[in-house]
Amino acid sequence: MTQLSESLNKKQKRGFLFAFGLIALISLLEVVTLKVDGLPKKFRWINIVSNYLGFGLTPSVCICLVYV
CA-CA distance, 66 to 68, in Å (whole number)? Predict the structure, then answer.
């Protein structure tokens, strides 16, 4: 994905791919949150953990892109 860009150095390519991975992980956590939302109360902890991790990881994407 980053091989076509001639203006990115290796550090920038790694940072971009790391940010892309974080966004994919956050999106996956959102899907888990939506899937677990209608289930019985014993699965509520999954909803809470996925929301907590999703909101906790969101600022790291910005930090990663600023670092690059």
Answer: 5
